[in-house]
Amino acid sequence: MDISLTPQELSLLLQLACIGEWVKHGHLEGNERADAAVVAHKHVLRKLQSIAHNAGMSALVEYDDKRDEYFETKEFEADYLQCIDAYVEESFWEELADRLAARDLVGEFGEEGFAALARFERIGKITELSEWYLNEWSTHGIRRLKVDAGHGGSELEKLN
User: Fold this and answer.
1) Do 100 and 46 fall into the same domain?
2) Largest CA distance in the chain
3) pLDDT band for position 151 (50/70/90)?
4) Which candidate, 1, 80, 110, 152, has a CA 20 to 30 Å from the CA of 57?
């Protein structure tokens, strides 16, 4: 199979592949990186890197003769890592808001009452409360965020 790509398209495809590889495998350690699926994904990424390198796209990919490996240039890596960082930052706050909203609603309705809400009603209530949290953090940062370690004492209190 042949795919015809412009240099711009190849650059975008390589960026997407690098982001995908980082998201899918960036958290793995040691032997987990030897998993067949990880190796298969790395193989495809290496093919894209090879094509980019052979197309003279040295601003994106470098080749190390000693290691027989392709590497993204620091500039190219910084560019796609900036995309990942923005995603991680946004998803962290959204996930935290969703979890706090669900926690608060379970506190209000009880676990059974919360579970008994119709799906769309539950999603609507979570969304409304999540948006409140996101607005709070957007307006005030975390200055007004507090953790109540009550309810039987915290682990820190037990250690002291």
Assistant:
1) no
2) 66
3) low
4) 1
- Whose structure tokens read 């506190």? 107
Using CA of residue 120, residue 122, residue 125, residue 129, what is the dihedral sign?
negative
- Neighbouring CB atoms inside 10 A of 19's CB total 16
Q: Which residue has the higher pLDDT, 7 or 34?
A: 7
At residue 96, the pLDDT reads 95
Would the CA dihedral through 81, 86, 44, 59 be positive or negative?
negative
Give backbone dihedrals phi and psi of 44, rounded to 5 degrees, phi first.
-65, -40
135 phi and psi angles, rounded to 5 deg: -65, -40
Last residue of a domain, one of 54, 72, 90: 72
Q: Is the dihedral of CA 8, 14, 82, 56 positive or negative?
A: negative
In this prediction, residue 4 carries a pLDDT of 92
Please check whether residues 68 and 16 belong to one and the same domain. yes
